[in-house]
């Protein structure tokens, strides 16, 4: 007889020793229902094996579900540095050649729990809908269109900002982007300084990347 789970609960009869004979169907029914449970849960149901860079294992399926509700297992990365220098080009400006990724030190484990920072950039470890935000502060103004900060995905610029908000003598530049990213693509904070005569120093450079959902 085929198992009834997971479409409905199986009803069992309580049997008594030395009073009735146990039929093979009694054991077979139990086996069918146990197999249905296993097939519904799948293999190693307390473990997330879909990540390309890290595998999470929980004590139970309930613990894994609790972690999912808290957002654990969703790739995130937060990078920061105290200062950065936008150097002027040493050659004729060619546009794309001046879009240089901003390097960051390796984030703390708590800021990159899935290890998606590969040493130079954030690499998407799942295909999905991703969010990225970039911020910096400087003691100089960046309104000059020859200088901007932005975000690139897969080596292509997706957003850039030259407009700043001035406050107490400082300029603040932010850039936000969200959209689909294929696993393996790099997400980077990029700079462009085509003003050959000046070098600019920035501070409070922050770059945050997270995946909203898989696709």
Describe the structure concisely.
This protein has helices spanning 24-41, 61-70, and strands at 47-48, 56-57, 76-86, 100-101, 122-123, 128-138, 147-153, 156-161, 165-167, 170-181, 186-193, 200-214.
What can you tell me about this protein's structure?
The chain is mainly β. Helices cover 13% and strands 38% of the residues. It is built from two helices and twelve strands; from the N terminus they run αββαββββββββββ. The chain has helices at residues 24-41, 61-70, and strands at 47-48, 56-57, 76-86, 100-101, 122-123, 128-138, 147-153, 156-161, 165-167, 170-181, 186-193, 200-214. The protein has a five-stranded antiparallel β-sheet, with no helix packed on it. Strands 4, 5, 7, 8 and 11 form a five-stranded antiparallel β-sheet that branches. A two-stranded antiparallel sheet has the order 1-2. The longest helix is centred in the first third of the chain and has 18 residues, at 24-41. The radius of gyration is 27 Å and the shape is rod-shaped. 20% of the residues are buried.
